[in-house]
Amino acid sequence: MTSKRKRICILGSTGSIGEKTLQVVRDYPDHFEIVGLCANKSTVALAEQIREFQPDAACLCGDGAQPGETNSTHLFSGSEGVLHLLETCDPDMVVVAMVGAAGLLPTLRAIEMGKTIALANKEVLVTAGELTMNLARKHGVSILPIDSEHNAIFQCLQGQNAKAVRKIVLTGSGGPFRGWTKTELENATLEAALKHPTWNMGRKITIDSATLMNKGFEVIEAHHLFGLSVDQVDVVIHPQSVIHSMVEFIDGSILAQLGVTDMYFPIVNILAYPERLENTHFEALNLTQLGKLSFEDFDPGAFPCLGYAREAARLGNTYPAVLNAANEVAVERFLGGELRFLEIAEAIDAALQSHTPSKNPGLEEIRAADAWARQKAAEKLSRAQLDINPATR
Q: Which of the following CATH numbers is that of domain 162-259+296-392: 1.10.10.920, 1.10.1740.10, 3.40.50.1450, 3.90.226.10?
C-alpha cells in the first residue's frame, strides 16, 4: 500500500467520466480515495455513490436540492455549494467532469486553493483558457488533461523539449456522419446523430462530435494547454480511434499514443501521474488484431463548426466564450427536437458575427459574453419559427 492515498474530488460524478473515474478508484483502492462528489440532478445516483464511498462532502447542483448531513458526509446544494464542497473535502486532485460552462467557476476556485486539476471539461479552457492558465501559473497548479486526445499529447510530450514541437495532430473518429455531404446532412436525424461509432459518451458531447465542434473545442484546448498557436494544431479523421493523437517534431519525427478505446485509460494515467500503475483490469491493445489504420480529411463545408472554433481562437478575447455558449443553446434545442442539424452551426455563426468583444476579459466579462451569446442564439432560433419534420426528432 502507498504511504498516502491521493484524495480525489469529482465534479460531475454521475456522468460518464465521473462513473469511469469511480471505477478506477474501485480498482485501485490502495492508491485513491473519494473525498468529494458533485452531481447536477441525479439525486438517486449521487445518493448511491455517497453510500458506497462515504466522502467527506457531496453537492447536488440542480434545483430543489437541500444542504444537510448524512452519516459523516456534509451535503451542499447549488452553484455556491460546489465551492463549499471543495473547501470542506480538501482534495489533492479535483476531477472536473461537469458538462458545459458550469465547470468554470469551480475550476478557478480549485486552482486558487492550489489543487491539481484533472480536466475532462472542454468548456473551461474554451471559454476562459487564458484566464485559467494564467491563474494556474500564478498558483503553481498543474492542469492535467483527461480528454483522450490531449492526454495522448500529454504523454507524447513527456521528456521532450517543447521548443522542438512543430505541430500536434488531434485525431477524431469523424462521428456518426463521417463522409456525409452537406446535402445529406440536411436530413440528419437526432437518432442518427446520437449513434457514435466508437465512444460511449453523454448526449451533448455526442452531438458535438457529430458537428465536429468537439474537435474545434479540442483545438482551443490544445492551444492553451500546450502553449501552441492555433495553426500548430491539426485535425485528422481516424475512424479506428486507435491512435489517440500525435506530435510532430521539427526533425520530422512523429510520436503517437495508441490504446484501447476506453476512457478508463487516460483517467488512470492522470489520477496516478507521475506514476504509472500496472493494468490488471483490461487487456492491452493487441497490435496483431488491429488490421489497417486509416486517416482522412473532412469537408469543411459540411462541418463548419471546426472552422468557427479556429477563428474564435485566433480572435481570442470573448469570442471563444460566445462560441461555446451559442453551441450549448443550439445543441440543447437540437436535442429537444426544435431545430435541424445544420442549424446548430447557423446559430453559432450568427452569434459570432454579431459579437462585439471585450478586450483582455476577466471573469465578469467572460460571463457577460456567455449570457449575451445564449440570449442571441435563443433569439435567432425563436425567430426562425422552424417547421420541424417529425422524422428529425
A: 1.10.1740.10
Of all residues in the chain, the percent with pLDDT exceeding 70 is: 94
Euclidean distance between CA atoms 304 and 388, whole angstroms: 22
In this predicted structure, what is the pLDDT of residue 388? 45
- Average pLDDT on 209-219 reads 95
Q: Could you identify the residue written with the cell 430543489?
A: 64
pLDDT of residue 97: 95
Q: What nine digits make up the cell of 233?
A: 494544431
Domain 162-259+296-392 in the same topology as domain 6-146: no
Peptide bond preceding 197: is omega within 30 degrees of 0, i.e. cis? no
User: Per-residue pLDDT tens for 100-141?
Assistant: 778 999 999 999 999 999 999 988 999 999 999 999 999 999
CB-CB contact of 345 with 300 (8 Å): no
Max CA separation in the chain (angstroms): 63
Pairing of strands 165-172, 243-249: antiparallel
Contact (Cβ atoms closer than 8 angstroms) between residue 80 and residue 59: no
- Under DSSP, is residue 278 helix (H, G, I), strand (E, B) or coil? coil
